Amino acid sequence: MVKSIGAPHDRIDGIPKVTGGATYAADVKLEGQLYAIAVQSTIAAGKIVTLESASAEATPGVVAVYSHLNARKALTWIHSDELLALSAEALGLSALPSGSSRPVGYLPLTSPEIYFAGQWIAVVVAESIEAARHGVGRIKVRYEVDAASVVMNDEKDDWIEPTFFFGADMQVQRGNAPNTRHGEVLVQETYATPMQLHQPMEPSATTASWDGDEVTLFDSTQGVLATREYVAQSLKVPTEKVRVISAYVGGGFGSKNQVWPHQALAAHMARALGRPVRLQLTRSDMALASGHRSYTEQDVRLVADRDGKIRLLQHVSRVPTSIQGGFFEPCGLNSLLLYGAETLDVRHRVTRKNIPTPTPFRAPGETPGSFALESALDELAHTLKVDPLELRRRNFPSRDSYHDRDWSSNHLLECYRLGAAAFNWPGRYVPPRSIREGSEMVGYGMATTAYPAPALPATVRLRLQVQGLAIVETSATDIGTGMYTILAQTVADELGLPVSQLEVRLGDSTFPNAPTAGRSKSTASVLPAARQACFSLREKLASIGAPHSPMPQSNESIFSLLERQAIPELVAEGTSAGMPREHNLSFYSFGAHFVEVRVDEELGRIRVSRVVSAFDCGRIINPKTATSQIKGGIVFGIGMALMEQGEFDPVYSRLINDNLADYHIPVNADIGDIDVIFIDKPDMRFNEFGARGLGEIGVPGTAAAITNALYSATGRRIRSLPATAAAIL
Ligand code: MOS
To answer: Domain 25-147+201-251+256-288 adopts which CATH fold?
Structure first.
C-alpha cells in the first residue's frame, strides 16, 4: 500500500468547508435561541457615571441588558479580583508583574472604570440580531472622561522590564560589548511596526446552551480544553459539566488562542435566561475584544568586523500592553538565536496604555522582531557592500549559543542554497537602484526566519467499528492548518487503511487531551499520540487473533475479524510524551525568504512580484497542506509589509479602522508567484516522524525581505511599516 505520509493528500475537511457542510460556532441555531451584542465604550479612559438601559429594555424583542450595574448579581458574573484566583493555565499567557495574571486585561461588566475605547460596557440580549442591535443604539451613557494615552513616548510612559516570557530571558546581557574599534562597522537604527489585527475569516462566537446543570458551548477557539477550564471556573461548576465544541475554526492566528470573557459570558447569560444564547463578536469587536498585535519600536545596533562577522547584537524593544493585560510582544526571540554574536544585549521594555489587550498573533515576537533584525542585517550588508545572503552565511549559528545547546537539526545553509538557486539570486553585491525594466525599478531582498519546535503531551483515541470505519478522536483543533488531514494520513499508514475508511473528529472537549493549537506545536504533539494509539489497537487486535506482525494488509481482514469475534467496536488510546527528554538539544525550524519587488517610480506603486522561500521544518507530512500553510504566512507578511496598520484617533484615542473597509489586507490581485521549497530532512531526534510544526514560521522575515527588496529597487530604506506608495515617493 502506498504510504500516505509524505503524500500531497487533499484536505479531508475541504469539501464540507466549501459546500457549507461544516458547522461553525455561529451557524448553530437552537430552539429558543437568543442573540447577544455588546455595547462598546466611546471613551478611552475614565468612568461610567450613568448608564440608562430602560429604553433599550423596552425595545421590541430585547430580553435583557447586562452591564456593571446588574451583571454580578444577575449573571453571577465574577469580579475581576476573583478572576485573579483562576488557574494560570486556563488564563494563558502572562509575564508582567502586578495585576497581570489577568490575561485579557479588564473583565467587562464588573465596574464602571473604562480602560480603553471600545471596551464592552454592556451586552444586549434579544430574540434576533436586529432587535439586539436596535437595543444597543438605545443605551444612553454619561462618562467622566480622563486623559488617555495610546501611544508610547509620552509623559504617561511607565516602563516595566519583564524578566521571563515565552521560555526566554527578556533581559539578556551576555559577553563584553566591544568598543567600536577602527575598521568595525556599525548599524544603529530604530525600526517600527504598527498595530495589526488578526482578521480571521470567521469572527469569534460562542453559542451556549444549558441542559439541566450541564452547558454546551459551540465555540470558535484554538483550545477547547483551556476554554472548558476557564468557563467552568467562571461559572463555578465542575469542569465535567462544561462541554466545548469547536469542530471547525475559520482561522485563529492567535486571536482564539487564549480564552476571552465572551466565551464565559455567553454561558452566564444562557444560564440566567434559561435559553440558549449566541454571542458573536462583530468585526469591530474582533479588533477590540479578542486581541491584536501591538505596535513596536525596536532599536538595533550591530557591531561587525570588516569581513561582516557580527561581534555585538543589541536589540532593545519597546512595546505597549493594556492597562491590566499580561501579554506583550517579545521581539528579541530570534535575536537570541540567530547569527551567533559573541556579545548579546537583548532587552524588552513594556508600558501600559489605554489600548485593548494585545495577544499572540502568528509568530508573536518573532514576526515584528524579525523585521528589525533582518532589516539591520541588510543595512550592514549594504554598508559593507557584501551580498546580504553571503553576510548571513558568514554569521551562520552552528549551535544555539543562547541556550548553550546543539541544534537537533539545522539545515538553514541548505535553505539559503536551494532558495537562492530557485530564485536565481544574484550571488554578488548588487548596489541599490541598479535594475530597471521599463518604468519599473526592480529589487531583490532576502531574510532569515526561525521558529521554535515545541511539543506537549496529547492523547488520541481510535475506535475501530465492525461496519468498516475507523474513528479517530482527539480534542485538538484544526484552525485551517491541516490537522484533520495529517492525522488521517498517520492512522492510515499505521493501520494499513485508506483515508476514506477513516473519520477524524476534532475540537470536542469530551475527546482525549490535546494542547491548544498555538505556537506551531500540534503536529509534533498529536501525531506521535496517534501512532501510539495505532500500536495499542494492533495489540488488541492481536489479542483477539489478528496476526501479530505485520498488520493485516487487507483492510477487510481487520473488520471481518471483529465480525467473526462479534465485537462491534474496538477502542484503543495512545499518548505522546511531549518534548524529547533524552537529548539536551535545541529544537528549531529555519527558513529563508527571497523576494523580488517592482516599483513604479512615478506612482510609487509597489508589487511583490515573486517570492521563493525555503524551509527546514524536518520531515513534511503533507506537502500540499504544508505549502498552503506557508503561503498563507507569506501573504500575511506581504500584508504586514505593505498595507496593515491599526490607527488610533489622536483626539478620542479610538481605533479608527476597526473594519475590513479601512484596514487593508491583501487580496488575490496583490499576490504574485509564491514558491515554497521544503528541505524535507527528518529531525529524528525530535520525534519518530522527524516532523516539526510549521504553522507560523512562514511569517517572520517576510516583511523585512520585502522592504530589503524595496531598498534594493529604490535606495529608500523603510524602517517603519507599512511601506506604502507614499513612503516610497
Ligand atoms: Mo499562535 S499566535 O501561537 O496561536
So the answer is: Aldehyde Oxidoreductase; domain 4 (3.30.365)
